[in-house]
Amino acid sequence: MSESGGPDVTSELRLPWDDDPEDLYEHAPCGYLTTLPDGTIVRVNQTFLDWTGYERSALIGHLRFRDLLTPGYQIYHETHYAPLLTMQSQVHEIALEVVRADGSPVSVLVNSTLERAAGGAPRVIRTTVFDATERRGYEKELLHARQIAEAAEKRVRVLQQIVADLAAAPTEAEVAEAVLRAPEPAFEATSSSIYLVDVERDQLIAVASTDPTTGNWDDMPRSSGRAVAEVARRGDLHVVHNLAEADEHFPDLARTMTASGRKTVVLLPLTTGPAEEQAGATVLGVLAFSFADERELSDGELRVIRLLGQQAGQALDRARLYDDLQRREERAAFLAGTTRALDEEHRLLQRGRRLVERVVPEIADWATVRLHIGSAGLREDAGGPGPDEELLAERITEVTRSVMPVFATDGDELGCTVLPITARGRVLGTLSLRMAAYRRGAEAEQAFLVDLADRAGLALENARLYEQERAIARSLQRSLLATDVPSGDPRFALETHYQAAGRDLEVGGDWFDAFLITPNRLAVVVGDVVGRGLEAASTMGQLRSAIRALANAAGGPARLLEGLDLFCQRVESARMATVVYGEVDLDACELVYACAGHLPPLLHQPAGSAEFLLQARSGPIGTRAGDRRRTEHRMRLAPGSRLLFYTDGLVERRDRPIDRGFEVLNREFSRLRGAPLKGLTEALSDTMVGRDHGDDVCLLCLTLGAEERLERTLGADPLQIALLRSDMRAWLIAHEVDQDCMDAVLLGCSEAVANAIEHAYRDDPFGVVDVAATITGDAVEIRVTDHGTWRGPGQSRGRGMQLIDEAMDDVMVDRGDGTTVTMRRHRGARS
Amino acid sequence: MTDQWVTFSRRGVAEAVHLKGEIDLANAHDIGRAIVARTTTADAVLIDLTAVSFLDSAGVRLLDLIVGELDERGKPIRLVVGERGAARMTLQLCAFRNDLFAIDLDRAAEELGR
User: Fold this and answer.
1) Do residues A488 and A393 both lie within one domain?
2) Residue B32 CB burial class (10 angstroms; 0-12, 13-18, ≥19)
3) The domain containing residue A678 runs over which residues?
4) How close does chain B come to A825, measured CA to CA in Å?
5) Of residues A721, A740, A747, nearest to B26 (C-beta)
6) Residues A281, A173 share a domain
7) A747 and chain B: CB distance < 8 Å anywhere?
8) Are residues A585 and A526 in the same domain?
9) Do B57 and A743 touch (CB under 8 A)?
10) Is B89 in Cβ contact with A740 (below 8 Å)?
11) Which GO terms of the molecular function aspect are on file (chain A) (predicted)?
12) Is there a single domain that holds both residue A385 and residue A236?
C-alpha cells in the first residue's frame, strides 16, 4: 500500500528480500509486543495473535503482558522479569508460559528492551516472543532420562555397598542384617523382613525386620502354606503386585498386607546358586519387602533384585560354614579346657564340682552330675532353677539302665538332656543339663555332649581310682604311724606329730618310729621314702619293719644302715629313702646316731642354744653315687635335753631357701624351749609350715632324763595348763615323787597358773606365765610368776586360792611388778 | 564337743554323768553346759568322777553349782569318787559334804532308788 493512493510501481522493483517493514512486523517469525512501562499492551503483531488466538482489540489497551501468563509465571514475572528489565533495560531468553485464548498454556522464550525518554524515565517496552513448546519438550525428556539414570546409579551404588557389607559379614546374623538394609534405599521399599532356614529343625526362622509390627512374626515349618514358606520351597522370586493378587494365592499374606497397609510385596529367596540353575540352588532364607503404594518393578529392577538374592544367599552360605567352623572350634576348645580343668583337681568331689562349673553357664543354665559311688552317692549341682526332681530321677534311672543319652526335645516336659557317664564299660553316673532351646536337636551339638560325657567319665573314673588308692594309702600310713610310741618311762618322753599335705595331695612316704630295743635302750627313727601314694606308703611300712628287725643291742646305727642297704637290694622301692636313726642309752644318757641322707637332727641341751647334729652323715639308703660308708656318732646328753628328728617338709618351703628354713627352725625350737613338751611338735609344725602346705611333715621330739629344775613359759591360754600338767607330771614321776604329793603339787600349780590367766591377764591375751619347779629330797617347790595387773581374787577364784592353801604346805604371794606365788609341798602322804 | 570328757547313762531312777580325764579352767564351762542340759529335769543324779585324773577349782565350782541346784529342787545327788584319786582329793580339800560322796556307782544308784 502506498501513501499516494496510486498503484505502487516500486513494488515490482523490490527484491524478494527487500521486505515491507509493516508486513515484516506483522508476520515476523516471532511475536512482537509493545507495552507501556506498566505493561499495558499498546501494540501486538499478527504472529503473536495467531499463536495465542487472541483478537487484537481484546489485548490493546485492555491487558498487561503479565495478564497473559499462567499464574506461576505471573509471580515469576513480578519477581524476576520486571526487576531485571528495570535494572538492565533488557532481558534475554526468559522462559515463560503464556495462556492462550482457549486457556491452554504455551511455552515461550522472551526478549525485552526498555526504551527510556531523554530524562531516563521508562517510556516503552518492546518484547519479542518465541514459541518454545518443542524445546521445553526436549528438556523435559532429558530431565526424565537423567532421573532414571540417577535412580539406576543410586540402586547400583546401594547394591554395591550391600555386596561389600555381605562380603565383610562373618556371621549369619550379620549377613541377615546387611541384606535387610537393602530394599529401602535401593527400591524405596517401605519395610523389609528376613527369614532364615534352620535345616536341623526344618523351620523358617524370622530373624529380623525393619518394622516388626508388620507381618506374621512367627517361625514356621518349611512345609507351611504361608507365602514365605512357599517361596522358600520354590526358590524363585515372587512379586505380589497388589492385594487382589495376594488374596487369590496367599490369604495369609493378604491379611498382613491389609493390616500393615501394604500394596505390593516382593518375596525374594536367598539362594546359593545362580537363578538359572534352580535345581542346584539351595534356599537359605527369604527376604520379604513391601511397598505402601502399588509399585511396578521394571525388568532392570527385577534383575537386580534376583542378583541381590544370590549375593545374599552366597554370603549366608559362607557365614554358615564360618559359623559352623567357629562353633566346632569353640566346642573343641571347650572340651580341651574341660579336660584341663578336671586334671587340675585330684579328688572326685572336686572334679565333679569342676565339671558342673565348666558346663554352667558356658553351655547350660543348669547342670547336675550324680555318681553312683559310695553308699550315699555323690552329687554336684550348678546353676538353676533345677527341673522337676521326680521327672529327673526317672530319666536318670532310664539313662543309667539303657546307657544311652536322652536329649532334650521341644515339648519334653523335663526339658533336660541326661547323659550317662561311663568308664571302662561301667556306668559311673549321669550328667544332666539344660541348654538353651536353640542348641537342641543339632546333631553336632549332640555329638559334642556325648564327647563331653566321655571325657568327664574318664576324668571321674581316674579320680575315683585315685580316691580309692589314696584312702588305702592313708589308712596304711595311719596304721603304721598310729602305733603307740613307748611312754610312761620317767627316763624319757616322746612327742610326735604327723601332718599330711594340705592340698589333697597323695600321701607321702614320711614316717617316724620309736621302740625299746632293750629295757634300757630306746631307738628313735624318722625317715622319708621316695615317691608318694600307695607304693610309698607300703615301702615305708616295709622299711619300718626292717629297721625294727635289724635293731639290736649289739649292732648300733651304722650297722643298721648297712643292713638297710642290703635290704633295698630286695625291695627296690626303698632305694634312696633317707633315714635318721638314733639309739639312746637311757641310764647313761648317751645318744648314738647316724644320718643316711636325711636332714640333721636338732638338739637342745638345757644349757646353751639349739644345735644341728652334723656328724655321722652318709648317703641315702642303697645310694650308688653317695657315700655308703655308714658311720655313727656318740655323744652324752645332759638330762632334760630335747632332740628333734623331722622330715624336709618342715624346713622346705617354696618361698624360703632351705638354709633360711634351718635358721627359722633353730630359732623356733629354742623359743619353744620353755614350752611344755606336749603339743610342742604340733606347735612347731604350725609355726614352720602352717596348715595349708604342699608336703607331708613328720616330727619326733625326745626329751631325755628329768631336768633338775623344770622351767616353763606359758601363754595366757587355759588350754596351756593341761600341757604344763603333763610335763610336770612326767617330771615329778621322773623324780619319783609320791602320788599324794604329785596330785597336790599339780593342783596347786594349776590353780596358781589359772589365777594368773584369769586375773592378771584378763585383758591381755598375749601375757605369759613363768613356772619354775625345783625338787629336793623332802619337798617340791613351785614358783608361778605373771607380769600382769592383779585384779584381786574375785568371788569365783576365791576357791582357787583356798585350794592352793589347802593343797600346799606353804604359800607365799608376792605382789610387786606382777605377782609371784611361791608354794611348797613336802614329799610323802600327809599325816 | 565335750564327748571326750562327759558321757551319760541311766542307772535306775538316776541320770548318771560319767566324767573322764582332766577337768580344769579350759573345759569346765563346756562340760557344765552339757551336764546341765541333761540333769535339769532328772529326778536323781549320779556324777561319776572315778575316771577323772585332775580336777581344779573351776571343776569344783561346776559341781557346786549342780549340787546346789538339785538340792533346791529336792532331788538327790551323789558324787562317786572312789577311794582315792585327784578328784576326791580336790573335793575333800574344798570340804564338800561327806554325804555327797559315794564310792561305788551301782551301790549309789541303788541307794537313790530306795
Assistant:
1) no
2) buried
3) 483-705
4) 15
5) A721
6) yes
7) yes
8) yes
9) no
10) yes
11) phosphatase activity
12) no
Residue A45 clears pLDDT 60, i.e. is over it: yes
pTM of full prediction above 0.80: no
Contact check, Cβ <8 Å, B24/A807: no
Note whether residue A682 is domain-resident.
yes
Give a yes or no: residue A425 inside a domain: yes
- Report chain A's terminal Cα–Cα distance, integer Å: 188
Is residue A6 pLDDT above 60, yes or no? no
Query: Using an 8 Å Cβ cutoff, are A830 and B89 in contact?
Result: no
pLDDT at residue B9 in the model:
92
Distance CA A643, CA A639 (A): 11
Cβ contact (<8 Å) for A718 and B86? Answer: no
For residues A79 and A174, membership in a common domain is answered with no
A285-289, A291-295, A481-485: least confident range: A481-485
pLDDT averaged over chain A? 85
Q: Is residue A831 part of a domain?
A: no
CA distance A622 to A576: 6
Same domain flag for A652 and A696: yes
Average pLDDT, integer, range A384-393: 86
Q: Cell for A576?
A: 634312696
Whether residue A638 is found in the same domain as residue A693: yes
Give me the phi and psi of B46, to 5 degrees please: -120, 125
Does residue A155 sit in the same domain as residue A37? Answer: no
- The DSSP code for A79 is I
Residue A352 counted as domain residue: no
For residues A663 and A171, the model is more confident at A663
Nearest to B86 among A718, A722, A743 (CB): A743
Give the per-residue pLDDT at A792: 57
- What digits encode the pLDDT tens for the residues A756-777? 888 888 877 788 899 999 988 8
Which CATH number is A789's domain given?
A: 3.30.565.10
What's residue B57's pLDDT?
87
Number of domains in chain A: 5
Domains of chain B: 6-108 (3.30.750.24)
pLDDT for A553: 82
Q: Do A743 and B60 touch (CB under 8 A)?
A: no
Chain B residues near residue A795 by CB distance under 8 angstroms = none
The residue out of A469, A496, A525 marking a domain boundary is A469
Cβ–Cβ below 8 Å for B93 and A796: no
Percent residues over pLDDT 90 in chain A: 24
Could you tell me which chain A residue has the CA closest to the CA of B86?
Answer: A743
Sheet holding A810-816, edge to edge: A709-715, A768-775, A779-786, A818-826, A810-816
A411: left (phi over 0), alpha (psi -120 to 50) or beta: left
Of B26, B54, B93, the CB nearest to A803: B93
Q: Do A747 and B93 lie within an 8 Å CB cutoff?
A: yes
pLDDT tens digits along A216-251: 677 888 888 888 888 888 888 889 988 888 888 888
Find chain B residues with C-beta within 8 A of A823's C-beta: none
Mean pLDDT of A517-522: 93
Rounded Cα–Cα distance for residues A382 and A432 (Å): 11
Q: What is the pLDDT of residues A477-486, one digit of tens each?
A: 777 776 678 8
Q: In A426-493, which ranges are continuous DSSP H helix? A: 443-482
pLDDT of residue A507: 74
pLDDT at A791: 63
* Nine cell digits for residue B74: 529336792
CA A201/CA A461 separation, integer angstroms: 36
| ipTM attached to this prediction | 0.83
Half-sphere exposure of A590 (CA within 13 A, CB side): 10
A20 interface with B at CB cutoff 8 Å: no
Interface A:B, Cβ pairs < 8 A:
63
Asked if the C-beta of A725 comes within 8 angstroms of chain B's C-beta atoms, the answer is yes
**Contact (CB<8Å) A747/B94:** no
CATH code for the domain of A158: 3.30.450.40
Confidence class for position A188, pLDDT limits 50, 70, 90: confident
